[in-house]
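Continuing the batch. This is chain 6 of the set; chains 1 through 5 are on the previous pages. Same settings as before, nothing changed between runs. Recording input and output for traceability.
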Amino acid sequence: MGSINVAKVERHVRTTLQQGVILVIEDGSLPRAVMGLKISDFWWSDDKALMDAFTYVAPEARKTRAFRMMVNEAKKMASQAGLPLLMANFGPVDEDRKSKLFKRLGRQLGTTIITGDTSKFLWK
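Output for chain 6:
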């Protein structure tokens, strides 16, 4: 969604790596899926959670166990830290399929909406 600012993406990935962890699933030497995680708090509370900073699974890996493997590792890390794992399904691509998948992983928390002129912001 929206335009890509490569420098901003690089800063976000670098910060996630410095303050958290990035899980990578490879096929041979090629990365096929990545998940960035870091411990964060909420704007209204000092309580912490292990939160996904980003998750991407390449189209050719979406019917594999790559995503599930990353989620299982993230759950294990959160459990070891004594924290909840918070993951978000944000984006307009395959909403029904992604929402169904996320509902199987844990408890649904809220919903996301966008209004106004989205013609230049959304991919669809």
